[in-house]
Each structure stands twice: as C-alpha cells, then as structure tokens.
Amino acid sequence: MRLVPLTALLAVLSLSFCAQKEAPSPAPVVPSNPTTPSTPSTPAATDTVKKLVWSDEFDKGTRPDTTKWGYDIGTGSNGWGNNEAEYYTSDSTNARIENGNLIIEARKENKGGKSYTSARLLTQGKASWTYGRIEVRAKLPKGVGTWPAIWMLGENIKTAGWPACGEIDIMEHVGKVQDEINWSTHSKLNNWTLGTQRTNKAIIDGVSTAFHIYKIEWSKDFIQFFVDDKLFYTSPNEGKGSDYYPFVAPQFLLLNFAIGGNFGGTTIDDSIFPCRMEVDYVRVYQ
C-alpha cells in the first residue's frame, strides 16, 4: 500500500500538518517496474523448522478478534491515506466473520464525505514481528477501482515516519489490471515517490475466483515473496544501512480494501458493489 514521506508533506503542508504520511495531490506517476530482476536473486528458503507464533483462523464469532485487530477509521486525510475514495469503518457491514473467513466488504454508500465505505484492519499495538514467515490465504475482489492489500509497516512509524519506518507489501492488486499481483518494499531511499522502490509484479490466474496463499520469508538478509509456495521476488539487504533496508525491526500487519486512490485509479465501476476481500487465515511462523 503506497504511502508518502513525512518530509515531502511537511514541505507542502507546513502551516497545518504534522501527520505521518499524507499523499500529495496530484499524486506522482508510479513507475511501472522500477527494480525488477529477471529471476529471484536469492534461492527460495522456506524454513519448515519455524513454529507458529501467532495466527487468526477467523473461525470464531461474527466480528474480528479485538485482541488481535484494530481499525483505522476515516479517510486518512490526517496523514495515512492514499487519496482513496472510501471511508474506512469498523462496522459489521464492512468487517465481519462469515463461514470461517474474514470478510472486508466495500459498499457504495455515503459516509464522511465519501461515496464508498470499506475497512482497514491492523495489528498495530497488539502484535508485531521481526523476521519469520507470514502467510495469508485470501481471495481478492474483482472490478475496476478495487485495491486490496496485505502489507506491513514498521512499529516505529509514529517516530520515524514513512518511509523510514519501512513498508513490506506482501500483496497488492488493482482491479484495473485483473490478476496482476504486485510485491514491493519501501524504505527511506527506496520508495515509490522516488521511483526507487524494490518491486516486481506477475499475472496469477484466478486471484478473484479462488483462494491463494500470499507469503513472505523475511530475514536480516532478504525478504522473499511467494504465491502458493512459488517464489516471485526477492528484496535483498545490500548492506547499505537502514535507509535502504530498515527491515531489522518489528513490523505490524495490515489488511485493507481500498477503492480508487493513488494506485487504484480514478475510474470506479459502481456496478461491482458490494464486493469483498475474503481472508481464510493469517499465520506467523518464527
């Protein structure tokens, strides 16, 4: 989920703004593929010895477990948004448990000055991790204007700001390019506003018709990105310091379903609503 650096915002909104990562307007053009290797630079290294340390199977109750998940509420106009078209809520119409799955549903309805609602769940302040394997089994929404994401942010974001805190995009998909999955890491000197993010993308058939497992293997040396155990990208630690690889400290997890925005685009197909992102489970191994 692309965010915007604190330094850029302070320059633009210095009279009134002190938030973490507001998106500029108009948004810069995102390079199509700034740093894309032809083959993964590190061999796949799935460690079967790791043990499950945290999980949510979404198999109890009708609402997300509040001991594990919190919510971002609103539009993010105070610093964490990406010029999206939805208003995030904690309502059951937007976030609930059904048949053993977390449902994040986007709806065409007016709230908070926006024409759509959805939800953004996060483990910030409840759980964070440094290194390990993170797996999320999910089925993604379909339709122009949709932008679901499974991603992570540094626990120190309130002090370091974005992108210095680091961001790991385990999965991003935008409905304007159906079945194309994007993987990225962002840091102070490798991020999308500079066009220097570490990133790759590939077509994965049926992301909106079937569940797939989106996974990272994360160590001090690299972050590897998988879909259904197939390695698609490696973001290495090149030994240049935390401005390039801040991923040596705790990160928390986010699950959200945006509409429009900097990456989702300005065109939204209203015929698709309501539409949903479904998550079967989240599992963390260390």
Walk me through the structure.
With 286 residues, the chain is mostly beta strands. The protein has a single domain, classed as Jelly Rolls (Sandwich), CATH 2.60.120. The protein is built from 3 helices and 17 strands. Strands 1, 3, 4, 5, 6, 8, 13, 14, 15 and 17 form a 10-stranded mixed β-sheet that branches. A 7-stranded antiparallel β-sheet has the order 2-7-16-9-10-11-12. Strand 14 and strand 15 (230-236) form a beta hairpin. The longest helix has 7 residues, at 6-12. The two termini are 24 Å apart. Mean pLDDT is 89; it is low at 6-33.
Mean pLDDT: 89
User: Which architecture would the CATH scheme give at its second level?
Assistant: Sandwich
Helix content: under 10%
User: In terms of structural class, how would the helical and strand content be classed?
Assistant: mainly beta
List the helices and strands and how they pair.
Blueprint: H1 6-12, E1 52-56, E2 70-71, E3 86-88, E4 95-98, E5 101-111, E6 114-118, E7 120-122, E8 132-139, E9 146-154, H2 157-160, E10 167-173, E11 180-186, E12 198-203, E13 212-218, E14 222-227, E15 230-236, E16 251-259, H3 261-264, E17 275-285
Parallel strand pairs: 3-6
Antiparallel strand pairs: 1-17, 2-7, 4-5, 5-6, 5-17, 7-16, 8-13, 8-17, 9-10, 9-16, 10-11, 11-12, 13-14, 14-15
